[in-house]
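If you are new to this repository, start here. Below is one unmodified record pulled from the training split, so you can see the exact layout before writing a loader.
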Amino acid sequence: MSKYWKRYRTRHVFVQIYVLTILSMVLFSFFILTNQIGTCEPTEESIIYVSSSEVGNFSKIQDGIDAASAGDTVLVYNGTYHENIVIDKSITLLGENKNSTIIDGRETGNVIKINADQVTIRGFTIQHSGLIFPNAGINCSSNHNVIAENTFINNFYGMTIFLSSNNSIIGNTVQNNNQCGIYMSRSSNNTIETNTIRYHTYNGIGLYDSSNNNTIQGNTLTNNNYCGINIRLSSQNNITGNTISENNIGIHVPSSDNTIVGNSLSNNNIDLEEEFKTPGFEFLFIVSSIALVILVKRRR
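And here is the target side for that same chain:
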């Protein structure tokens, strides 16, 4: 009997050890998985709070940006912030409400200057930049940024984009800025989509100086005194599905190498103006040579 009892106890202990081992492995795996998932989600430590009433970490937006690390979010509560902001790291700048979270540049310089790549700016009213070129609500000279769901009003330019690529400008209201809504120079592969752009002295959107391969689609451009969209010395841009009305010129475009499809053009003084292509040097040389030969023969 004792012999069988010993065997039973041995098996029982073995089973206990086995069960405890399995449970330990399951718990350890759950712990590792939980930690891995946690590292992929925003944490409280990655959010910096800015409030004009001093209930956040900082009362100035620039102080919050300076304290942030790449990948952090600077969350700005409602209020008016009289600042000129420089963003030199890859962060998200998020306003509580675009109608009541206001950044005012005091008519000095750029309201926001983006120098870093992979910046997101969302949810602000951005106003009162300086009044000389290229001052703007946002001046951008970097890549892979997102500017979405903001209001730009009473700036010299709404946005000025220089030497920048792969940026997304989506769902903004850009209106009543002094010169142009969006001015882009030597910037390619950008997307300007579903914005409302109106009431500018010159252009709603202007592409200049080899700003190529950009996509402008689904925007509403109205009451701009020169052009809704003005393309100069730029090619292979896709202008599709925009509603363009009540401008002097709806779209001004070089005569080739740009795609203009599916736009609604109405009540512009000129709906579509194609730029005359200046003849090349070779063509002018041939024509001049033929004219000279004809002239010599006639004199003989």
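Two things worth knowing about this chain: Confidence is low (pLDDT under 50) at residues 26-42, 279-287. Residues 47 and 146 are 18 Å apart (CA to CA).
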